[in-house]
Fold:
Amino acid sequence: MSTDLDNFAGLSSALTGIPQTLLAPEVDPVDLPTQFLAFIEPRITSSVLQALLNQYATLLADKVPPDQIAQAVLMNGAQPAATQTARAARSIMKLWLLGVWYQPYDVGSNKQGDQVVVSDQAYTQSWAWKIAQAHPMGYSEFFFGYWNSEPPSLEDFTGVPATGQQGVSS
Structure:
């Protein structure tokens, strides 16, 4: 992976709380990180993307924990930051979770508030389905009759330990 791609996957992991090894596995026939990075660059501009990736790389080099990286990118003290980088980061989070790009601000013909499903793979592989332990209507990688068995734990889907969280089985 390129440095930008590594930083994008790492930033995405910090923003979503999903391990980078699950967002960008070594063997990945779908390769959403590459698709997403190519898709968003013209929609947020190269300068905003580079500022965001540089901010992540600097914080990572300073050994800042992922949750604090997300805090630094998204917040201005106790308030959500209104910068273009913070708004782009929020759209990146939504992209990973929903497979949909929500345009954070006007760039060329892309107007703030525009929404677009990036690809069928982005939608079917989006993390909202995995977190909900579900699948999109009409698409499933499970075998016929899977609903008759106890579902795998949330940790099996996301890699995030679910022990002690209300409403989550593990």
